[in-house]
Design a protein that fits this description.
The protein is of the alpha/beta class and about 150 residues long. Helix content is about 55%, strand content about 10%. It has six helices and five strands; from the N terminus they run E-H-E-H-H-H-E-H-H-E-E. It starts with a strand and ends with a strand. The mean pLDDT is about 95.
Length: about 150
Amino acid sequence: MKPRACLDTTIFIDYFVFGVDKISRYIASYSLCTPSSVLWETTYILLKAKAMKDAGIRKHYEVLKYLRENPDYVRTATKEIVNDIKTLISLYKIRILRVSPYGYMVREMLRYGLLPSDALIVATCRLHKVKTLITCDEDFKRVVFLEIEIP
């Protein structure tokens, strides 16, 4: 049985935004997984990026205003984004992990000085006994129980 490796948001963003596949090189060595929170964050980032491109918006708060004022756009774009994410998950047989409880996230924030989304990934890895994290984010290097793979 292959050891598990968790994929961080940066890996999904590189795939969808920049067209860089940093996943396939790990299939032979690991059983891949990701916290559901990574998929939430990926969906949000992709939705904002798509709206910025489609509507020609450059500022963060302007794109949020645009999305709030255009629910039909949000529905249509979300269907497209979620379909793309589901296809990738299916292609690479990525297992989706249930996220850890809030208190565990806070513990990892205090222990390692991580931002909430990163701490939630760490707490989820600890909860599910995942020892490897595939990421482009150097902040995870201070997490002592994780082996960090930076593609």
